[in-house]
User: Fold this.
Amino acid sequence: MEYKLSFKEYNEALKQKKLLGLKCKSCGAVTVPPKMVCRSCASPDLEVVELKGDGKIQTFTTCNVAAEGRESEVPYTILLVELDEGPWIMGNLVGVEPEKATMEVLMGKKVKMTEPSVFPGDKYSAGEGASPAFVLEA
Amino acid sequence: MRRVAVVGVGETNFSGPQEKTSVELFAEAAAEALAESNLKPKDIQALFLGNALGDFTEGQGSVQAFAAENIGCFNIPANRYEGACASASMAVRDAWMWVASGFYDVVLVGGVERAASMGTPLATRTFAMFSDSRYEFASGLTFPAVFAMLAHLYSAKYSVPLPKLKEQLATVSLQSYRYGMLNPKAHLRKEVTMEAVLSSFMVSTPIQLHDCCPFSDGAAALVLASEEAAKKLTDKPVFVIGTGQASNGTLANQQEYLPRFRSRELSAQRAYDMAGLKPEDIDICELHDCFSIASLISAESLGFFDFGTSGEAWMKGEADIGGKVSINPSGGLKAKGHPIGATGAGQVYEIAKQLRGEAEPGRQVEGARIGMTDTLGGDGCTLVNMIFQRGW
Assistant:
């Protein structure tokens, strides 16, 4: 079976600020990040689509304790965003001071994708990984 | 399928960093479990051992083989289970299945971890390995961050204003600290005030230090036996009457269910169905309170309280001894501690002690007949639920 969208292909596109997903030809659901099959109906009949990167914040946290090797990044804010195409995705919020990242300011607010951050990798991670980054819509 | 009983249990103190090796820790727990069961190492047919991070804590893979030989269980089949914080519960469930199937009669089960000895930075890094390493760790995801996001989501979804939720969460932690004080094997044995909880260091908004369980060192062990074998070994068998296990993947992909985990609801339902019981039949539950918010989510998914209401239930004492269901009279992961590969076996240790009426005064649930465990690995990636019944 043809593997439609590998981690490597997804990650290379994301670094270019292109968010790729998989649209299911059976049920229409969009899967992102990629899997071998549709996350909704398990069909392997998928096509690669480019997502707009627009969505709504479903939840967030501002992290003050990071994993070993990433201590210099704190504080940073992690989001779960519901994309306009349906799926939720994890990413980072930029452009909002950590102390201003509250439920009132963020929950349910519209965001759009901006330049991603790239974790360069550590001795455990088998290389780098890009993280989608979002800004609040004006 | 044959009936299977827990016939003996053992547990080390759960603690901060200490100097015993993993095989030494497990030996201490195993010796206690074997002595309780009136068995010798040569009587054990197989070992099922939970150990999530031995490779990182002491550079030891395949610890199960060294653990078996160390205690004199020479050359027996020995399996290691890695399901993050649910590792030992996976081991118990598989051991139960092998005995229930008739293949083995008497087996040793347990878990061991030196999570405290690793120190917080490496522990935070390795615990994050139980989230999606390719697609979610790049965002800086940590374990507190997972449950912190679920806390904000819980507040919004169930319309519990954050200040009110924070007070409920502090109440959950305080209940656990209270029972930890009465448990001589608990890692954190200290009096803590509401004010101290609410003013503690902000780890990941809105989760503060006192909302988090500690990283612990420790081991736990159990002997499981077929009903027939159990009759010769103990007059107080604790029967395994229901088990369930389920998995889920990437956190964001659980979008329809969050802050709940579908894996828990499937796992718990399987355990209830097998036991032929309902949530109201459970007298005592050791549930997976890795963070205070995790207690609320778990208690609701297990069916003890309606969604969005368990914080109120904790505040009214309904999750306390003498309430609707006695939750975590051991002190839970919060106070008893969380040596992750051993935690599930530690929960079963507590249930067996409680059903036998052997817990310390002040935290014994009088007349407890049915007990349940709930163990969550990763961000829902592995869920195991088990139900136990007093056999006399």
